Give the backbone structure.
Amino acid sequence: MKPLNARPLIEEWDWQTRAACRGMAASVFFSPHYERGDSRRRREQRATSICRGCPVREQCAEFALRTGQAFGIWGGLTETDRGHNPRVPGRSCQHPETVADSIAEAA
């Protein structure tokens, strides 16, 4: 039987200990179900500004894409940036290269 995760856990998760968001309220990065409009935009702007200066931003974004994180801000990418929008049924995730280009442009 092939192991599910061949990499040691420390290598898989260690980047999170260096994240700029470490210890912050999850509500900055994950929206309540009822959040819309200006409120959502303000929260996303705050979260992405924190991500912008994060030393592990690329690892975070890569993790979100690799594991299919559908919710929240990861590596400065919103749900919409990653191609996940719960209000648009059937929308699929963007190709990782497209998202990687977005990360590079924002840096």
